[in-house]
Amino acid sequence: MKLDRFVILAVALCALFLFSLPALSQTFRMNHQMPATAVSSAVDRWFVDEVAKRTGGDVDIQIFWSEGLGKTTETLSLLKNDAIDMAGLSPGYFPGQLPLFTAPNSFPMAIDNVCQANRLIDRLLTEVPGFQKEAAANGIKPLFFHVLNPYYLVSKQPITTLEQMVGVRMRTWGAHMPRMVQAAGGTAVTLGLSEIYEGFSRGVIDAAPFSVDLVETYNIYEVAKHVTEVTLWDGPTWGVWMTQSAWESLSPDHQAVVMEVAAEAQARDLAVVRQAAENARQTLKEKGVTFHHFDAADLRTWQNRLPDFFSEWIEQMEVDGKGDAARQAVAIWREVVDTVECPA
What we know:
This protein has helices spanning 2-20, 41-54, 75-80, 99-102, 114-127, 129-137, 162-165, 177-183, 196-201, 212-217, 244-249, 252-286, 296-305, 309-319, 323-339; strands at 26-32, 59-64, 86-89, 140-147, 151-155, 169-172, 187-190, 207-210, 226-233, 236-243, 290-292.
């Protein structure tokens, strides 16, 4: 009997000791597709610092910028195989595995401004279960997304009408942007982001969709002095993702902190991006860049020539068993575009 009481007391003391121990700190490695100098990269630095601060240092996230842990095109595989814990990654690189997430990152002339892009991705993640299911099927969890400023028509010569678009060689990407250029009588040229400057300087392209802050960042103003303020593309871009296994290793309290900070980071990103556009616009004017407006009637004609990207996408998603999610997404998308404007 005395032995039994001793064993019970020993177990109780051990349990008390274990529960009184501080939580072990966890370190998570994030592969990032962007350089540390990008405008929104500062938001990701704030995110990891704030998570560490609010968890008392228990959750430490280390960012490896500019593909420091692997090529962007390899990152989803690295996440799925738990070779890395987190990533700053655009879903547009993986249309086969992430077709729902890819759509807002791909369709031209489908979003007017960054505020719509921010609201859209937020609502899709919270209101369309198919998005979370798609992520889970790939072993990942989205935490928050960045947005980019509108991609305007940046060119070597002024382009303000459809007639001036005929024969223009424009940098594009993906499957949808080339069709937008072709609808205006232009020629689509596929180039990577880092190839735009050289493409202009060597005469490979005459124009490119690009945001004003990226025109400044990549020094495009040196080789293309005209910006026509017609939104050729806008939308959410890279997301910050965590593997399911890394997420499940966090305590419920730490999970709550991560999501709280993620929501704040997404709001912060919108403010940072809008300010970057305002600053860049002034800088570009000082560098000799001229801003133009596109003819309104010609813009409507151009838009009417575009394929019905939404219907095509829903049809494709039906084949994948994701038709309901796509229809939900399109309904939300249309509502956001009709109702959301950026405050002055």
